[in-house]
Amino acid sequence: MKGIRRLAQHLDISIGTVSRALNGRPDVNEETRRRVLAAAKELGYVANQSGRSLRQGTTNIIGFMMQTGTEITGQGDTFFMSVFDGVQAVFAKHKLDLVALLCSSQEDPTDYLRRVVARGFADGMILSATQRHDPRVELLSERNIPFVTLGRTLTDAGQPWLDLDFEGMAQASIDRLVAHGHRRIAITRPHDDVNLGYVFVERCRQALAAHGLALDEELIFRSTPNEAGGYQIGRDLVSLDDRPTAIVLINETIAIGFYRALSEAGVTPGRDVAVIGRYSPQAQFLSPSLTCFRLSLRDLGVALAETLLSTMPAFRDQYPHTATNKLWPMELVEGASDAPHFHQS
Amino acid sequence: MKGIRRLAQHLDISIGTVSRALNGRPDVNEETRRRVLAAAKELGYVANQSGRSLRQGTTNIIGFMMQTGTEITGQGDTFFMSVFDGVQAVFAKHKLDLVALLCSSQEDPTDYLRRVVARGFADGMILSATQRHDPRVELLSERNIPFVTLGRTLTDAGQPWLDLDFEGMAQASIDRLVAHGHRRIAITRPHDDVNLGYVFVERCRQALAAHGLALDEELIFRSTPNEAGGYQIGRDLVSLDDRPTAIVLINETIAIGFYRALSEAGVTPGRDVAVIGRYSPQAQFLSPSLTCFRLSLRDLGVALAETLLSTMPAFRDQYPHTATNKLWPMELVEGASDAPHFHQS
DNA sequence: CATAGTTCCGTAAACGTTTACGAACACCAA
DNA sequence: TTGGTGTTCGTAAACGTTTACGGAACTATG
């Protein structure tokens, strides 16, 4: 005898009552409930996941899809672990479990997701590393699976999304650098599949135009979103004849390699070239310390969770005023890397 | 009509035959199988996870347990993503899926794991961030859940484990530094709950003793395994009256903060103090570049997967010669941070 | 032609839950 | 007493699979 039957036999009551007691149904005597809960704890009973979700058609699991073995976003190290912590803080109130669904680099992400939803694995999904055109969005929309994306896509199917405020970062960076006297400003962007690059570049272009400046196409650096990519950008930058006096790094991890390339060329950030980047645990330990845009990853996780829940029928009423689309603000942390431009050009 | 019944109805055969066809049973006509497979693809049918695992008592899922919101090992996201990729390469051959089970920082890891196994969520587990005394090991052993740990525990229950070869790293580091003329060598270690610290410190002590040197207890630095911890170690080190001429950093991420602290004090790695650390994507971009111990994370993942499968009855015969315990070697990458010690002490 | 063997497929029972339904009982008012 | 109203619980039917079992249709063998 196993499972709920064992518990029922042990208490000499029916399995129906046991189930009702454990699930907090009102039609069970409080004394009985107490006994059931005590026995469950004693025998270490936890309802079998398969049986429960087969009957209920629900799993109480939310999947966070990630792709292994690849670097798409350039968000390193502890980024996701912090976001997860915020998500879980919300989920814990609703007995929802967060699991990371790991798509192998050998498998197509959309195929993987199709497999996951067809199997009925999760009640809802959080998608990250969204591409500019991302078939996963359409897939989940069609199947009516609740989901939220971290990152906008170009094909907006009306789904809920959160995204970092790259427009705000672009605007603030350009304004700040221009105010510091810079006129020739370089920017970076990820490869073409990622949407945020377009958003960022266009806003930089607009912000420069507002100051009567043009964005030099030669000064838009494209690279892999990792340290090596940053190194390459640094090499390219210092080798330019008409070197820019400032640069805005859109990714988090590229600053590390960028600094190294500058250092090898005898160029010092904050003196010879102003640098604004993104916060990472390493950023504040670069020398000179990086002026960067920072955000609370845990709060971002909380917002992701709340946005998702606000679209799920079972929880909607508990999150009535949650925005389904939001640009998440980033805060400027002043370092020593973007000192004013004193040289005359 | 849903699920397998829909498929059976569509083909006008029984659900039993459909199931047998999809699961590759021999007692089904090849022509029938072809038709079933085609129809399944056309209708996008994938067997419901709950139904299947309820009947079979097996989930085809392996869980990799991680703790969110905490830094125990000092290994970042890219670390695990690479390991995962190796694990999945093996699992893909056996139609096993890897998911990361995320234990919230609010919940006790052992309670979480108990919940997961009681629910019958996974067929097997991979544990990381193992503590010196880790109740999770006993839990899984008792329940007879196949598992492997990444990291040894003190309470060895005979379970399979893989671990990085910190002994080898300790020995090679000390030998190398002594050969370079260093006599006063500092080391670092994580906090007391983590086993590898003991292993590492003891081997360093032995290696030094073999050269007739004693390990100065004052030169064992303990810190959080992140950049801030490294910064603190750096500050502490430069403020010592009798400063060591070399240091071995056991964690991956601390080098970043350590370099910064040295830089602020006008101390240069590789000239004023020799530094040996662990490889990370950032390490090669530190300046001067870090001499460090590196390993193939993907291969480590492959080994983890094979070790786990070799303990599972269903797969054991396919991995007959897999060692259940293994110290994973690390390779020295020469940088510029551990130059010979030319000063007289 | 009878028998045995093989191939293929349908039937139905399980797996462990949850929950609609109704029964049993106690209580109270008429 | 009767009928109504709650409270509490047991019964049994789902949920979507897989698989043991047996039967039907062939084929081969004597």
From TrEMBL, chains A, B:
<dbReference type="Pfam" id="PF13377">
    <property type="entry name" value="Peripla_BP_3"/>
</dbReference>
<keyword id="KW-0678">Repressor</keyword>
<dbReference type="Pfam" id="PF00356">
    <property type="entry name" value="LacI"/>
</dbReference>
<dbReference type="InterPro" id="IPR028082">
    <property type="entry name" value="Peripla_BP_I"/>
</dbReference>
<keyword id="KW-0238">DNA-binding</keyword>
<keyword id="KW-0805">Transcription regulation</keyword>
<dbReference type="InterPro" id="IPR010982">
    <property type="entry name" value="Lambda_DNA-bd_dom_sf"/>
</dbReference>
<dbReference type="InterPro" id="IPR046335">
    <property type="entry name" value="LacI/GalR-like_sensor"/>
</dbReference>
<dbReference type="GO" id="GO:0003700">
    <property type="term" value="F:DNA-binding transcription factor activity"/>
</dbReference>
<keyword id="KW-0804">Transcription</keyword>
<dbReference type="GO" id="GO:0000976">
    <property type="term" value="F:transcription cis-regulatory region binding"/>
</dbReference>
<feature type="domain" description="HTH lacI-type">
    <location>
        <begin position="2"/>
        <end position="56"/>
    </location>
</feature>
<protein>
    <submittedName>
        <fullName>LacI family transcriptional regulator</fullName>
    </submittedName>
</protein>
<dbReference type="InterPro" id="IPR000843">
    <property type="entry name" value="HTH_LacI"/>
</dbReference>
